[in-house]
Amino acid sequence: MVEKVILTRLEDDKLLAKGVKFTSKAGKKHIAPTPVKRLSSDGPAKLSALLDQHLNNDASPAFPAQKHQYELLREILQSKDDASIHCYMAPFQMNVEAGSAASKYFSPVTEGNYVTMLAALSHPFSRGSVHINSADVNDKPIIDPRYLSHPLDNEILARHVQFMETLIRTEPLTSSFEEEGRRIPANTHVKTLEEARNLGPRTITSNFHPSGTCAMMPKDLGGVVDEQLIVYGTTNLRIAGASIFPLEPRGNIQSKIYQIAPPPAAYV
Q1: Which of 194, 160, 169 has the alpha carbon at shortest distance from 4?
Q2: Contact 164, 200 (CB under 8 A)
Q3: How confident is the model over 43-73, as pLDDT tens digits?
Q4: Catalytic site positions
Q5: Low-confidence ranges of the chain (pLDDT < 70)
Q6: 12 and 115 in contact (C-beta within 8 Å)?
Q7: Residue 173: CA count within 13 A, CB half-sphere
C-alpha cells in the first residue's frame, strides 16, 4: 500500500473545551473504506473515463501478468461497494518530512497539537521491484517501490485528498480545526484537483504492509511459486508469507498471512 498524509493544527482552546488531549503515542484511529466513484453524483462515469484513459492499451511486455491484474483491478474499482481508498484519522502527529525511519515518522518533531488525516490506496496500479544485489547473502537487496509510477494511482489519491478537505470543512469536524491552520508539510491547503495531484509526490510513503514479491501465479505470467508454494525450478523450496500474494490485499495483510500458514505446515 501507499499513502498520502495531511496534517492540520488544532486549536488548543477548542481541544481543552472538548476534553481532548492529543499525544505523540498511537491512540485510537478511525478508518473509513471509501470508493472513489461515490465521491460525487457522476462518480461512476468519471471513474470509467479515468480508467479508459490510463488503462486502455496499457501493458508491460516485461511483466505478462500485468494485463490480467489491471483487468481485475478495473473490475474491483467499478464494483458496487469496493473501496479504492482507506481514509484514516489518527490523534497524533505523523510527519513524512522527519525521515523514512518509522521511529522518526511517528515522532512529534513539530511543536503543536496535530491530528493526522491520510488516504491509503487499496488497489494500487504501480509496480515496484526487489532484486538481489550480489552473490553475497549478507548484502541487502535492491528495493524500488516505484510509488505513483502509474499515473492512475495519483489520480485516485488526488480525488480522495480533495474529499478529505471536504470532510475537514464539514461539521462536526470543522469546528475542531483552525481555519487555514498550520499543516505538515506547510501550506498544503488543497483547493483544486491540480493542487491535490501535486501534493502526492511530496507526501507519499509506505503503509508498512509489503507483499507480492514472489507471486503465486503461472510461471509463464511471471509467477514465482505454484499452488503448492513450491518455487518454480526447485523440488523442496517453499515460500509461505505475504510475498506470494499476486495482488495487494485490501487493508492489513496479517489475517491473510495467518491463512497461508497451515498448508505449508502440513506439507512439512
Answers
A1: 160
A2: no
A3: 888 899 999 999 887 666 668 888 899 999 9
A4: 209
A5: 1-30, 58-62, 80, 100
A6: no
A7: 14
